[in-house]
Design brief:
The protein has 53 residues and is an alpha+beta fold. It has one domain: RNA-binding S4 domain (Structural Genomics Hypothetical 15.5 Kd Protein In mrcA-pckA Intergenic Region, Chain A). The protein is built from 1 helix and 4 strands. It is globular.
Amino acid sequence: KLAPSKREARNLVAGKGIAVDDRIIEDANEVIDITNEIILRKGKKVFIKIKKA
């Protein structure tokens, strides 16, 4: 899990702690299109690779 709750996930986004492919997410309501695969980063050390099935 990236965050244990929705509130903590929103706080991470508000604090600019979430990035998708090295682009910082600033809006918690942003829709991310997964065309091939993306790398989701939390802070500096947690990375998650998401692939389209």
